Amino acid sequence: MNRFYKKAISVAFVFNTALSLSVPLTTYANDDSNSQKKIEQIEYGRSVLDKDQDKTDIRQDDNISKKENGSTKASDQEKNPDLVNENKNEEENETIPIKESESEAEEVKTDEKNEEQQEIHNAVDEPDNTIEGLTKEDIKVTTYIESKGWQEPVNQGDIAGTENKGLKLESFKVKSSHPELSIRYRTFSRNSDSWMPWKENDQLSNPVDTGDQIEAVQFDLTGAIAEQYDVFYRVHSKTFGWLGWAKNGEHAGTKGYDYQIEAIEIRVVSINDDRPEQTLPAYEVMSDSREKVSMNNTEPMLTASAHVQSYGWMDTEESLLGVTGQSKRLEALKLVVDTGAMQGGIEYRSLVDGNGWQAWKRDGKLSGTEGQAKHIEAIEVRLYGEIAKHYDIVYKAHVQSFGWMGSVLNGMPSGTEKLSKRMEALDITIVKKGTTEKPSNDGFRYPPKVQASAHVQSYGWLEANQNDGLLGVTGRSKRLEALKLVIDAGAMQGGIEYRGLVQGEGWEAWKRDGQLSGTEGQAKRLEAIEIRLYGEIAEHYDVVYKSHVQSFGWLGSVLNGMPSGTEKLSKRMEALEIQIVEKNTINSSSEEGFIKPPSINASAHVQSYGWMKSDENESIVGTIGKSKRLEALNLTIDTGKLSGGITYRSRVEGEGWQYWKRDGEMSGTEGKGLRLEAVEIRLYGEVAKYYDVAYKTHVESFGWLGAVINGMTSGTQMLSKRTEAIQVDLVKKNSMKADPDKGFKRAPIVFIDIGHGGKDPGASYFGLKEADISLSTGLKVINSLREKGFDVRSSRETNKHLELKERSTMSNKIKPDILFSIHYNSMGGNNWYARGIETFIYHRVASGFGQETDRNKFKTEDKRIAESLKLADLVHNSVIHDTKFYNRGVKGNNFHMLREPESPAALIELGFIDNIKDNAIIKTKAYHQLAADAIVKGIVAYFGDW
């Protein structure tokens, strides 16, 4: 027990101003001398009070009685009117009215008496400084008093402010020096006629010197150890004097009276210790008729706070907590009920994302989490004590995807469980017993449950196993013959429907909600099943199921109406497992859930014809000899006893390659008039282990191209040719060889590297910069190749700087068929003797200029080197022939742009800038065009008839 509140004995004197002084006595069992000294001080205080008591009418103050053995004895007050409020400070006596005829000496005497009384007060009200690691000095309260300004800070448990002097407490601040505990606070301001924002950590509760007055307050604890303490507080209000104790966010003060607060007292108490006795209301409210309404006889008042995503703590005296329409989660709640004179309070607990149901919290304690970004999913709230006999607590949750749930009351869950849905708001009210409607069945939602039964060979009707949803038997070779399925959807609308594939009869019509699917008494096996949900429940849940089949055992799981079992294989279903799971928690069904012999079905959208199916005999879809383009493709595969499927993608005119589609999804376009130019098709799953997919395309101008298999490209690219027909077949694995070069035609990809640029001008002589004339020549090469249908990429097409590493990296990402680099030459001096054109391929040399002129040393066994030499020869010879420049030959060198590219590469030097004769020619636009045309001729010759 906290000694701060042990065995309080109060004595008081009362003047005609209704002023009272409370002097509590604290005894110490382990310190007799100290105890005796304090008792002597008290006896002295009593003698002082007795002298003044004859001059005044004695008033029984605030009905606060001595606390004995944990219970309040109201009769003690009747027997001893001296037992009144605790802890009155020295400022009480400063308000004692003095008659004008009294002398200044009498005033001094009164002041001395006040000092003596304050000494008594300090002696008997000295608390134990240690409260579970929290000391009295850890909490300091500083007040700003009308006309006096800021006062000295006082400790918790001491009076902060003035009493009966008519001076407003205009502002205050509370500071906690304890690292794990803080107090937040807010006030009701007359000027704003509203509650001020929460403050803490020595922040001002209100602006000062504004003439405003505080009429009510709230205090609340925060921090790591806040759950171990309660904060109690009371106020000294104009006319009322000291009101009763409030706690943990309850209101203390007045409403509607326009009465100022003049003093406050705060006590932080361990939850295991005694609390201050409560016989007076903490909050006085005036009714609309302007008659005084005490909390002793008014409706209980609910005060609530919610911690909301992005907003933090939000407070309300209304019924609504949180926000709707903004997808913000509720993360924590604090609820307080001002019960007036009734005993009891409010308790609540939260179902938190990832944490489950928390322990019950009560009376302003935090339920949920703060700073962890976890949503509350459900809440339970109930009253306790005397108030619970007279009132109900009614509440409903606003939940992600569901909106407002139905109303529930008195501890019933509201929200959802195991659905991963956030609560966004809570509507909560207190109503008198007997005035509430029956709680809604739609106040709390949870995962639905399937109730299933099956008719099994030799066993008859069997119920599903409640643990795993298993229907039927395994390991006994017994057929499933019929099913009945029912779903407990809770408050949600909807149900379950299903159909069976019956031996000799095929697929039945859909049945639902307990109807029989299959046969009874006919000895016919179920071979496959399809199950799906309908109604509201289908918006939030998937039904997942799998079959145990003769010869195959358990097949893979499927969902939402997909077939499970076998078809055309004469295999019996022996068992079925069904589960209901939250929507989209299973991304796709198993590739092994349904088995039947494989076959491909193809359809295509054809210009002028629309959708056409494949020819059953030749598996061809499209037209031949009618010049009609294919625009879209749709492929499905019946894999039979094997799992898996078919996936495919199309290259579309103007759009390029689309994403992969599978199993009946449309690839291509419809209604846009765009041609298919190429396709790629492949199998996946178990069927791909035993079969290859073979296909070929009929293309404008080319006719049938060669057949390819398993994801190879069939058709054309960058040639503006329409695909007119496609043939698709399944062939046994490895039974067919395919040449990808015969099945696909595309424009060559050429990477043109234009040397230097930007801050790197290259060689510069006679006013001519290598970067400029290389760009002029290179752009002409690029434009000419593009006009001829080549797919041309480049390192630069403007005057910008690129490091060599950037250029080679760019090329390697593109993976071109060739790289060709354009430069102009120099030997390092004006009018140098060297002139002419030379071309290089990669060759590793050790010193000098790094040139290798002996072609026999080129590593042509390397395919890249061999192709580079072929390219260099064709381009070099073409340029020498057309420009008539001096031929310096094809050489080897260790240049970066020859060494680092992964594709065949050549670099040409188109003349010497520092040779005056070459310079006069190469600076002209005519030469740039001539050289560019010659380069293009060589590149075209390299690719031949592509």
Gross CATH architecture of the largest domain? 3-Layer(aba) Sandwich
The biggest beta sheet reads: 7 strands, mixed
CATH topology of the largest domain: Aminopeptidase
**Basic shape:** flat
Could you list the spans in which at least 5 consecutive residues all have pLDDT below 50? 1-131, 288-297
How far is the first residue's CA from the last residue's CA?
Answer: 97 Å
| CATH C-level label of the largest domain | Alpha Beta
The total count of strands amounts to: 73
The secondary structure category is alpha+beta
Radius of gyration: 46 Å
Helical amount:
10-25%
Task: Please report the number of helical segments.
Answer: 13
Chain-averaged pLDDT? 83
Q: Can you tell me the CATH superfamily of the largest domain?
A: Zn-dependent exopeptidases
Strand content: 35-45%
InterPro entries: ChW (IPR006637), MurNAc-LAA_cat (IPR002508), N-acetylmuramoyl_amidase_3 (IPR050695)
Region (Disordered): 46-132
Keywords: Hydrolase, Signal
Organism: Alkalibacterium gilvum
Which properties best describe this structure?
disordered N terminus, 6 domains, 15% helix, 946 residues, 6-stranded mixed sheet, alpha+beta, 13 helices, single chain, flat, 7-stranded mixed sheet
